[in-house]
From TrEMBL:
InterPro entries: Gamma-CA, Hexapep, Trimer_LpxA-like_sf. This is Carbonate dehydratase. Transmembrane segments: none annotated. It comes from the Bacteria. Gene3D superfamilies: Hexapeptide repeat proteins. Pfam families: Hexapep.
Amino acid sequence: MIRRNPTGHLPEVSESAFIDPTAIICGKVIIEANVFIGPYAVIRADEVNDKGEMDAIVIKQDTNIQDGVVIHSKSGAAVIIGERSSIAHRSIIHGPCEVCDDVFIGFNSVVFNAVIGSGCVIRHNCVVDGLDLPARFHVPPMTNIGTGFDLNSISKVPPEYSAFSESVVSANHTLVQGYRRIANEL
């Protein structure tokens, strides 16, 4: 469902994107080419800052937002999800936040008030809150990263996880094409 927010902003969605009919896209949201938005995802840009303004939530091209993902922002702050990134099932991305290009964020993970560098892999059930991750970092499952966390205690992304991330992007790109093809069959 595409809908306006209380300030009147309506999402801008590329014609080549696919949004599942059960997803809710609300407000000042920009969805670029070949993006896949899965069932029950919620992307909601509706809060304003103290000046009554808000930045957009931007989902860049060839990215996939999987089932049950929530993307929102506090006080109208920007949220940017980079190109060829995957936000896996039931994750939460809460702004202010930037997820750079070629990032994989695993099932049930939460990212808030952080910049996630290009090529990072955040595995399942992780929290990244208030600490930026440099490019190509690998966050092991069930890791909580916040202010004061020693980033030297985690490693760079192993090649097999980069390959996995690329395969997820490829699979979801194929889904965009397939779902768009059958969208009006029922």
